[in-house]
């Protein structure tokens, strides 16, 4: 027979809503199981909101450089290094992911793959 554990609350999905609920429940001294089939942070952190905004930021910087002469700033855009842009994006995602892992761990939320 498998070992069982009792929790005050079980949350399905470790996306932004799920981990926020889990952290709040832990603040209230409840025992929490957070069940996620993929990665802590969900779609928003890994494939949606966060990586998209990082890519958009790189595009906005390039656009600002292209338009800088219009405000009296001389500059030139030598090109876009797609590999470096992707590294920038992955760095942001990884930093936020590690921070979220630490936060969940420090609050003693039990993250369950399922």
UniProtKB/TrEMBL annotation:
Keywords tagged on the record: Disulfide bond, FAD, Flavoprotein, NAD, Oxidoreductase, Redox-active center
Biological process annotations from GO: 2-oxoglutarate metabolic process
Pfam family membership, one: Pyr_redox_2
Classification via Gene3D superfamilies: FAD/NAD(P)-binding domain
The UniProt record lists the keyword Oxidoreductase: yes
Gene Ontology MF terms in the entry: dihydrolipoyl dehydrogenase (NADH) activity; flavin adenine dinucleotide binding
Cofactor dependence: FAD
Database matches in SUPFAM superfamilies: FAD/NAD(P)-binding domain (SSF51905)
Keyword Coiled coil part of the UniProt annotation: no
Domain FAD/NAD(P)-binding: 7-105
InterPro entries tied to this protein: Class-I_Pyr_Nuc-Dis_Oxidored, FAD/NAD-bd_sf, FAD/NAD-binding_dom, Pyr_OxRdtase_I_AS
Annotated family: Belongs to the class-I pyridine nucleotide-disulfide oxidoreductase family.
Protein name (database record): Dihydrolipoamide dehydrogenase
Organism (species): Georgenia soli
């Amino acid at each position: 027979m498998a070992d069982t554990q009792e929790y005050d609350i079980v949350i399905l999905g470790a996306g932004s809503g799920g981990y926020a609920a889990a952290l709040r429940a832990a603040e209230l001294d409840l025992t929490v199981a957070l069940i996620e089939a993929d990665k802590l942070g969900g779609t928003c952190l890994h494939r949606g909101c966060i990586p998209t905004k990082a890519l958009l930021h790189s595009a906005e910087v390039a656009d600002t450089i292209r338009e800088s002469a219009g405000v009296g700033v001389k500059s030139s855009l030598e090109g876009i290094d797609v590999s470096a842009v992707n590294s920038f994006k992955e760095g942001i995602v990884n930093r936020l992911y590690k921070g979220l892992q630490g936060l969940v761990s420090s609050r003693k939320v039990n993250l369950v793959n399922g």
